[in-house]
Amino acid sequence: MIKPLLLGFLCLAGCAANAQKFAQLALTPPMGWNSWNKFACEVNEQIIRAAADAMVTNGMKDAGYQYINIDDCWQGARDAQGFIQADPAKFPSGIKALADYVHAKGLKLGIYSDVGYQTCGGHIASRGHEFQDALTYAQWGVDYLKYDWCNHDGLNAEGAYTTMRDALHAAGHPIVFSLCEWGDNKPWRWARDVGHLWRTTTDIFPAFDAVLDHTNWQQWGVLRILDAQKPLREAAGPGHWNDPDMLEVGNGMSVNEDRAHFSLWCLLAAPLLSGNDLAHMSPATLQILTNQPVIALDQDALGISAFPYATNNNVEVWFKPLTGGDWAMCALNRDPAVKSFSFAWNKAAVSDAFAKRDANFATTTYALENLWTGQPAGTTQETLSAEIPGHDVLLLRLHKP
Ligand code: GLA
Fold first, then answer.
1. Phi and psi angles of residue 204, each rounded to the nearest 5 degrees, phi first
2. Which of 21, 301, 347, 355 is the most buried (most CB within 10 A)?
3. CB atoms near residue 31 (< 10 Å)
4. Is 203 in the pocket of ligand 1 (CB under 6 A)?
5. Nearest CA to ligand 1 atom 5
6. pTM, 2 dp
7. Would you say the CB of residue 114 lies under 6 angstroms from ligand 1?
8. Given ligand 1 and candidates 35, 202, 203, 205, which is best to mutate, with the most ligand atoms within 8 Å of its CB?
9. C-beta neighbour count of 80 within 10 angstroms
C-alpha cells in the first residue's frame, strides 16, 4: 500500500505540470523587514518576535510594512522523513508558532532557503527537497520565500527557480517568491512568470559610495547599486519587481545618506525591506522609514520605476511618473559636499517613452511639494533653486492641477 505521505508527493509532482506563480500578490513592491542586514546568523525567535512587536507599535505597520522575514541561519536538521526543522536552540517554539504569533499581529512571515544543498551560511538548503520544503512552509503558514543561489553547482537558474515556483504552487498556500541570484543570470529577462521579485546585484552594505572587496565577491554601496538599476526599469511592474536589495537605513550611514537611500529605493519601486534593529532605532531612522508621502511614490499603483533625466555638476535628476498625472522629481547630490542646484522647468522636456507619459511644463503648471520637509515648494512656473547637502536629495512631488 502506498503511504498517504508518498501519495501526497506523487500528486504534488504531477500537479506541478500546470504550475505558475501565485497571481495577485505583490501588486505593489513588498514592504517589511528582514533579519539579515543587522543580525546575519545571530537570529532567533526573540529577535523575530521583537521585530514584529516593534513594527506594530512604532507605526511601521500603519505605514504599510507587513512582512517579517527570517533570513539565513534558522535551519536545524532534517527529520527521519526528510522534513526540515528549525534550529531547536534558536527557535525552540518552531516556525509554525512564530507564524501564528506574527499573523496574530496582522503581519506576515517570510523565510529563506537556497537552490543548493547548503545555504550561503552553510545550513541545510532545498536541493532535492523542493516539494517537501514547499509543503513544510505551507503547513507552517509561511507567506514569503527568499530563495538564494549559493552552492548552485552549475544548475540552470531558470530551471532551478521554476522548480521551486512549481513546488510552492503545488503546496497550495499563497506565497511571495523572491529570487535571490544577484542578477548573475539576468532574471529580469526570464523571471516575470517565475517570481514576484528578483535581486539585481550582489549584496548591499551600509555605505553610500563605496565597494567592499572580499576575496571572491564584493558588497556594493547605495550609488553602485543604483547605477546598476538604470538599464532595468522596463522589467519592473505590478507583481514583478527588480530588487536592488534590502534597506540599510539605520545601519550606520549618515541621516542624509539614509534619506537619499530610502528616496531612491522608493523612486525605483523597489521592495522596502528594512534591515535595521526595529526594536532599537533612533527617531530619525523611524521618521525616514515611515515617511508616508515618500512611501506613496514606491507604492504608486502604476508601478513604474524612475529614470535618470540629466546630471549636472554631480547632481543627478530623476523623474518617476505617478498615477493621476503627478510626477516625482528627485535631485540626488552624489557628491559628499553641499551643492547649489537650480532647475529651469520651462527648459525641461520630460518624456517617458516606456510609460508613454510626458510632463509639459509650458502648458501645465504643477504645484511642488517637498516630500522631506512636507512643505509646499512653489510651482513649475518659477526656476527651482536649492542647496542640497552632500549625499542627500531634494525630493518633490509634482501635483497636476
Ligand atoms: C546571500 C544573500 C544575502 C543573504 C545571505 C545569507 O549573500 O544575497 O541577502 O541572504 O546570502 O547567507
1. -75, 160
2. 21
3. 21
4. yes
5. 120
6. 0.95
7. no
8. 203
9. 6
Cα within 13 Å of Cα(351), Cβ side: 3
What amino acid positions are annotated as catalytic residues? 148, 203
72 lines ligand 1 (CB under 6 A): yes
pLDDT grade for 17, boundaries at 50, 70 and 90: low
Give CA–CA dist 29/25, Å, rounded.
Answer: 9
29 CA distance to ligand 1 middle (Å): 20
Ligand 1 closest atom vs CA 112 = 10
Mention every residue, 6+ apart, whose C-beta is less than 8 A from residue 50.
278, 279
Closest CA to 29 of 134, 169, 178: 178
Mean pLDDT of 79-85: 98
Q: Which of 34, 42, 71 to mutate to test the pocket of ligand 1 (most atoms within 8 A of CB)?
A: 71
pLDDT value at position 19?
81
Q: What is the pLDDT of residues 251-271, one digit of tens each?
A: 999 999 999 999 999 999 999
Cell of 195: 517570481
